[in-house]
Every structure is written in C-alpha cells, then in structure tokens.
Amino acid sequence: MNKYRLLGASALSVMLASSLPSFAQAQDTGPILDEIIVTAQSRAKGLQDVPISVAAVDANTIEKTGIVKIEDLTTLVPNFTYAETGITTAFLIRGIGSGVNQGFEQSVGVYVDGVHYPRGQQVRAPFLDLERVEVLRGPQSILFGKNSVAGAINVTTAKPTDYFQGSVFGSYEIEDSETVLEGMLSGPMSDRVRARVAGRYRDADGFQINQTLNRDEVAREELTIRGTVEVDLTEDLMATFKAEVTSFDAIGRNIEVENATPVNNPSSPFNGLTYPQILVGVFGQDASVLDFTQDGNRHSNGDNSFNDMETYQMTLDWALGDHTLQAITAYETLTYNEQCDCDFTGANIFLARLQEDYTQFSQEIRLTSPERDDFDYIVGAFYQSSDHTYQDQIVVESNSILIPAVNGRSPGAGSLLSGTQAFRQAQVDSTVLSAFAQVDWHLRDDLTLQLGARVTNEDKDGVRNLDVTTDSFGALPAAQIGAPLVYANVFGIASSNLDGLAGLGVPGAAGLVAAFGSGTVPTQNRNVTKFSPDVKLVWDVSDEALLYASWARGFKSGGFDFRANNRGQSASTAEAFQFGDEEATNYEVGGKFKLGRAIELNATAFFTEFDNLQISIFDGILGFNVGNAASSEVKGLELDGRWAVSNNIRLSGGAALTDFEFTDFQNGQCYGTQARDGSDDRFDPTTGFCDYSGLKNNLVSDFTGNVTVDWNAMVFDGYELTGLTTLLYKSSYNASQTQDPAGVQDGYVKIDARLGFGPQDGPWEIAVLGKNLTDEILKTYNGDTPLGGSTFGANSNYTFYSQGRTVAVQGSLKF
Questions:
Q1: What is the DSSP string of 389-428?
Q2: Which residues pair with 245 in a beta bridge?
C-alpha cells in the first residue's frame, strides 16, 4: 500500500454520502444527538463540520469516566498512547512521539487555552474543571504554535459564568486509598466582571509494595488551584486573566525487575548466577532483591519526584467590526526535582538525582475574519522565548557494591568511586518567531479549498558540561583523582576531568578520550527557518455529509542532547550534542456523516512519512543513543461515531487500524540478550548496533477500539439511575524501545463502569466508579536493567506496570 491507495478509501465514503438523504428522511423523528462544539481550527464549529481527524471529550464525559489526567484519554481515543518512562514521559499519536531525552521537544503538542505546554513533565499534571479536550491526529502545523508534527491535544478550561454556580466533589478509591476533593465557584462580580475559581486535591497511597522499604508505592499528592477573571473593558473588548498553580509529587515508581538470565561466561566469577543471586548471595544485599517476578511487589532504595508548575495568562478578544482580534500573552514555569534509584533494584549500586527548571514567555496574535460566501481567513503571528536548565548527578555512595565489584576486576579502582558523582549541567535558550495564515476559498457553495502556511524561525543556544566531583560537589581529592578513568570504563561517561588527565599524560586517559570523547561541550547555536504548508479540499455533499482530502507538511525542531554520556557514533561529543529537525508529510482523506438526527459516523484514512526521526534509546549502561537515525511510514484507518439509540441510551466508540514501519533504522540499540554470534541477522558486528528496519515503533498496536454505553433510567418519582460502561480493546505491542521480546504485551480488554443515583437534574449525586474491572496488569514501558548486563554480565529487564482494578465511591453537589 502507498499513499495513492488512500484514494480507494474514499470510494466507500462517496457511496455512503449518496445514500444519506433517503436515510435522513426516515430518521426525522426520535432521539437527537447533542452537537459537540470544538475549536480545532480556531473557530467554534460542530465536530461534524471540521475536516480533521479529531476526537473530542466534553465535560460530562470527563466527569463520568473519571478522567483526571491526559493518560486517561487513552481509554476513549484510539491511536493515542501514553507511558511514563524511567526519566521522562512518552505520549504518541499514530505511533509517533518523542524519545527519552530532556532535550527533545514534544512531537504531540499540548495546548491549554491556546498556550503551548512544551515539556513532557507538564503533561503529568492533573486535569481540573475543564470544558473539553480535543485530540487532533496528524500534523497540526498551521494554527498551533510549535512542533505538533504528530498531532495536538487542545485543552479548554471552564470559563466564568454570568450567573452564580458552584460545585463540590469527593471520591475515595478503596484499593489505592485514594482521596480526591474538588470545588468550584463561578459567577458575576459586577455588570462587567465575572470570575471562576476551582481547586483539586488528590492523595493516594499507591498500588505496589516496596519490599525493601516496607511501604506502599506510588504514593501521590497533588494540588491544583486556578482562578479566571473575565472583564468587559468595552462593549467590543474583553480581557480574560487566568492564574494556575499546580504541585504534583510522587514517592516511588511502578517498576518491577524481572526476566533474570544466568551469566553464561566461564571466565566470569558470576558464571551460572542470575542478577538477584549475585546481588544477594555475593554482595549481601537485602533479601527483597531476590524477587525478580511480576507480582505487584518491587524492591528499591527510594524514588521521588517533586513538581511545581505556574501559568499566568491574559487573553484579549476584540471585536473589530465583523472581525475578531485575539491576543494571548502567557508566562509559565516548571520546576521538578527527582531522585531515581536508577539501578531499579533494592541493592545499593548507584542513584540519580535530576533537576529541571523551565521558564517560557509567549505571545500570539491572530485576526479572524467572519465566515463569508466567497472566502474567510485567519492570520497571525507567534513569539516564544524560553530558558531551560537541566542537571543530574550519577552518585556512587560509599556503601555501593560497585566498589567491591570493580575492585574485584581492577584492585583499587572501585575505591576511587566511593562518595563521588558524575555531575551534568546543560542549558538551552530558545527564541521562536512565526507567522501563519489559513484561507478558506469557497469555490462553490458546496466546495471549499483551504490553504494554510506557517513560516517559523527558531534560534537556540545550548551548552553542556559533565564533571566527576565528590558527592557534595567538591573537587576530587588527590587520592581519587583517577575516578574519571573508572567512570569512563564502568559507565561509559566522558567527563571534562578526563581531558585534564589526558593532558597530564595519565596512562589510559588519552585512549579513553579518543574512545568516548570530551566531557566539555562548547556553546553551540542552531538557527533554522522552516516553511510548513497545508492544503485541504472540502466537499459539503449535503447537510448530512462532508468529504475532505488533505496534504500537509510539518516539522519538529532539532536541539541539543542533554543526556549523552559520550560521543556515541559521532566523531566528537560536540557533534553528538546536536540533533536535527524531524519532518513529516501527511496525506489524508476522510468523511463525516450524519445518518438522520441520531447517528454520526466519521472515517479517516491516512498515510504519513517521517524523515530524520529524533530517537533516544537507552544503551543498557547509563547512556542514551540520540540522533536523527530513522525514517518511517505510518498508514491506517480511523473510525468513530455516536448513536442515540433512544432518549435514554447513547452509544459511542472508535477504532483505529495502524500500520507502522521503520523504513530505515540501521543503528538501533540491541537488547541485552540479543544474539551477537551471527545467528540474528539484525545484529551488525561492524557497528555493534541492530537494524530495526521493517519493525514498528514501541507501544504501537495494530488495532485499538472502544465502545461506550451511556444510559439513564427513572427509578423513583423524580430520581434516576445513570450508568456508563466503556470497553477498550488493544492488540499486542512491544513496550521495549530495543524491540526486546520480553517487552511484548499481549492484546487485552479493559472495562470501566460507573453507576450513579440522584434526583433527575438535581443538585446531588452518589456514584460508584470501577476502572479496569478485568484487572489487566499491563506493560507500559520496558528496558534492560542498568549495569546488570554491562557490569555483571547478568541480563534482566525493568518494566513499568499499570495499575489493576480500582473501585471508587463518589459524591457530588452542585448549586
């Protein structure tokens, strides 16, 4: 199949469209679907009138299904995937997302009230008091500010009302001991001023047991407060001020270590032993480390993540005759501090500390014309400046078993590591300036040509340094001056100290610098200008049918590699520090249909080519291989629809067929147990890498689908039962970026259900919400256990596992 075969997919749409008038005449009575309004193209339009593959979730559905964060959308939106990894967050649309690196921009753009949230960590923040969430699939390069090469998530918060209202909500989940409290007040403060304030607090004990520390994990505490004020400055000018403060903290990680493979090396002192047997039997670590099976228990010396976000926004909406001028000014900050027991075991090996500080100022201005008979348009400009600093420390404490382990191979070398750390610092300053326009040219009453373009200039300055210091950030004492040599040999870390030792002629230092590169990277600059076009042809076949075909190109800007420990495949660390732009070309045909007043059906066929994919894959030691190393093709079919079966029953659902293939990816990282003796033709002995060409990306399922039944029934005079059940099916996928068979997750079915009771249209409700009633424990991310294979020769995997069945009791009051 190639891109031209997409034209065949439109044949069914044309036949269906031609049959609609007679069907509509037969369905002009009975139940009616409520219209869903979206702003996917910066105008408020009905979902059925927007020529984009978009899934919309309104406030009522968000409340009933218990959606509290972006991750929860995966149940309702086919072709959308979310996973937390060891150090970042991965979320994908149509199989494309960003790799594991703090230097990456996000391939899926997230926008809240028109403001770009660029950092993956921001996506972990909880939802609060929303009007709707839209998931737009495919490149969204024109009307969304930056880097939405795979798609966009458009979040709209609830606005102040011109009448007084309020609500309180409480929930308690039994298994996780999770408590959620929410409150909202909204109403007029004067004839010209309206305000809304909302808050949310969540506290949860966790669903796994850390046997090393004898506590439940992942424990979470979250608090979000938002205030919004609308002011009618004149009859034609309204200002909206919004401030939001969020903190979300986590203690622990939902990781289990498994698949321990015995050492197969007769010359190794550990031959025949598995990793847990080595850690406990040889090095005397805690007995909890022996648990290398998936059983809901983990062992770790402690992980935590403390995150704080602030957003301040002013939006001006000015009616200029029949045009509208909108200006969005925003300032946002993100700070997080994490400690990761990143050997992922309860043994004392090493730990990592990470800190990120991000500040961003953005300004967008757009002019929107009225919708006219001949043509209408949107034009605008966008500016963004940001400062991004990141640092981490790889710490070897004095009780680390690495010290005796390394001493066993090289007497005295391990002792050089005691109480030291590899300290990385990186900073990127960025400025973005772009102009955009979208014109709808109405060729006929029923035919529109939509032309869009965005020109973007981005300037980035980046610098990074990597030193070996004491664990209190001091200079190494004379007795440990050789520690950088050990960091290079054990961790593959090229530090700036290593350059100094080579300059002093210390034996072995020059060879290590030649092998791994320098730890000092001079300040570098990237300045690129890109043109992103978009063309759509939209045919309004009738009031009940719309067909469209589109072609679009988008890009995700390149940047600087924060996480590299050495030069990798590049000639130098300076060269390895920078990676280039990722580009996408998308072809799409689709149709949106109304079958009478009670049924809506949408279909989209797509073909997307990605070039210079930005990849970042863990190397099994402590580093990541980063660069523009791959190209891919993704093609598929997406369906969604709604049906008002009766006045009391609604059906909705969606499905996606996705065919993802790396067309060129020859330098993928091999997984730990991958055969290197010539029996596996994907392994290249000349490079030491594995060829992923012909394979699909991790976390990508060939098929996903969901069905939701929403119903209500009168049970007493004035009282009703409400119910909602969602069934999700997802075919198998591989959770491992290295294509390790141990990362394969079989296909599964999940069922969520809610039952509520209260007065019909009344002020209160009590409900029971069950999630994942089939109790599926799923692999969401998988990799080789750090240092297990590289240092001890004993391979195993760490795996993130999802939460099982939960049941919550809820109560709400609205006034």
A1: EEEEEEEE-TT-THHHHHHHHSTTTGGGGTTEEEEEEEEE
A2: 225, 310
Using omega within 30 degrees of 0 as the cis cutoff, is the peptide bond preceding 218 cis? yes
Contact 154, 791 (CB under 8 A): no
The pLDDT, as a whole number, for residue 120 is 82
As a whole number of angstroms, the distance between CA 169 and CA 187 comes to 19
Task: Find the range with the poorest average confidence among 219-228, 622-631, 752-761.
Answer: 622-631
Which residues are registered as beta bridge partners of 101? none
Average pLDDT over residues 475-500: 93
Cα(233)–Cα(192) distance, rounded to whole angstroms? 7
Mean pLDDT, rounded, for 292-314: 95
Q: Helices marked H in 183-319 — which ranges?
A: 275-277
The residue to which tokens 């594991």 are assigned: 100
CATH architecture of 3-814: Beta Barrel (2.40)
Gyration radius of the chain over CA positions = 28
| Residue 527 reports pLDDT greater than 90 | yes
Q: For 472-495, b where at least 16 C-beta lie within 10 A, e where not — what string?
A: eeeebeeebbbbbbbbbbbbbbbb
The maximal CA–CA distance of the chain, rounded, in angstroms, is 91
Contacts of 444 (CB under 8 A, 6+ apart): none
CB atoms within 10 A of CB 598: 18
Is there a contact between 115 and 142 (Cβ–Cβ < 8 Å)? Answer: no
Identify the H or E element spanning 498: helix 496-503
Element (H, E) at 337: strand 323-340
Q: How many helices (H) and strands (E) does the chain have?
A: 10, 43
DSSP class of 562 = S
Percentage above 90 pLDDT, the chain: 75
Q: Model confidence over 172-227: pLDDT tens digits?
A: 999 889 999 999 999 999 999 999 999 999 999 999 999 999 999 999 999 999 99
Per DSSP bridges, beta strands 297-298 and 208-210 are parallel
Q: How would you classify the pairing of strands 115-116 and 108-112?
A: antiparallel
pTM greater than 0.70 (yes/no): yes
Asked if the model's pLDDT at residue 25 lies above 70, the reply is no
With the CA atoms of 204, 205, 210 and 215 taken in that order, what torsion angle do they form, in degrees rounded to the nearest 10? 150
Would you tell me the crossing angle of helices 483-491 and 496-503 to the nearest 10 degrees? 120
More confident residue, 483 or 97: 483
Which token pair is 659? 């065919």
The C-alpha atoms of residue 122 and residue 307 are separated, in whole angstroms, by 9
Contact 592, 602 (CB under 8 A): yes
Question: If pLDDT is split at 50, 70 and 90, which confidence band does 29 have?
Answer: low
What are the φ/ψ torsions at residue 6 (nearest 5 degrees)? -60, -25
User: What ranges do the domains of the chain cover?
Assistant: 3-814
CA proximity to 608, closest of 658, 558, 655: 658
Q: For residues 145 and 364, is the Cβ–Cβ distance under 8 A?
A: yes
How far is residue 36's CA from residue 350's CA, in Å, rounded to a whole number?
Answer: 52
The residue count of the chain comes to: 815
Instruction: Find the helix or strand (DSSP H, E) in which 713 lies.
Output: strand 703-716
Does residue 521 have a cis peptide bond before it, meaning omega lies within 30 degrees of 0?
no
Q: At residue 174, what are phi and psi to the nearest 5 degrees?
A: -75, -50
Nearest partner of 107 among 602, 545, 613, 515, judged by Cα: 613
